[in-house]
Amino acid sequence: MILFIKLFLAHLIGDFLLQPKKWVVHKEANKITSKFLYFHVVLHFVITMILLWNLDYWKLALLIAVSHYLIDLSKLYADHLFRLKSIPFFIDQILHVLVLYVCAYNENLTAHTISLFSQLDWALVTAIVFVTFPAAIIMGKLLEGMSDQIELDHKSLPNAGKYIGMIERLFVLAFIVLGRWEAIGLLITAKSVFRFNDLKERNSRKLTEYILIGTLLSFGMAIVTGIIYTQIK
């Protein structure tokens, strides 16, 4: 585990802490001919060796550096295929982490992977999945009749309410799993404070009631999910 942690730390330092914005821009513009692409790869090799502090790992560090070069280069040429630039970014990061995982556990990769899956808390995984998109869809159906009576705010970000709801339910579930029920009260208070000015400016009773019902439903579903999980785990 300590080997993977060190490799992951080296990746974080090389990809985020020590990669200036101008390097990223230059790589995107010049791709394979960008000198900063090669600086970036060499930097990863050096950081990995420093953190491992063992010359016996030079082949491992070289393998990681080469794979990093190939993944980054592929991303540079595939960027234009995606409308959202966040998609190739996350694919790139997932591939990097997978390489680190394979390198760290190459001697017993299959056994370690099987062990990881066998130790997963599937009840918790199910609870996490439920409070995200399934809960959002269920809430949309429950509030469907009311939402038709609410004037849309075109200044709002698309689907912002849905994602805010998912995040708050994940927080509520985490607090229940950790046994920190008081934190749920703080979360409700914080949300109320942020919503207060909007509701005051709109001066709409229907909107206030709609948001209140939606908030209670969202927190209620997360709380019930958390209680069920704690009872069956």
TrEMBL record:
Q: Which UniProt keywords apply?
A: Membrane, Transmembrane, Transmembrane helix
Query: What start-end ranges are recorded for coiled-coil regions in this protein?
Result: none
In terms of superkingdom, the source organism counts as: Bacteria
Transmembrane segments annotated in the record for this chain: 36-54, 89-107, 122-143, 170-190, 210-229
Do you know which InterPro entries this protein is assigned to? Phage_phiKZ_Orf197
Q: What is this protein called?
A: DUF3307 domain-containing protein
Q: What organism does this protein naturally occur in? A: Kriegella aquimaris
- Which lineage is the organism of this entry classified under, starting from the top rank? Bacteria, Pseudomonadati, Bacteroidota, Flavobacteriia, Flavobacteriales
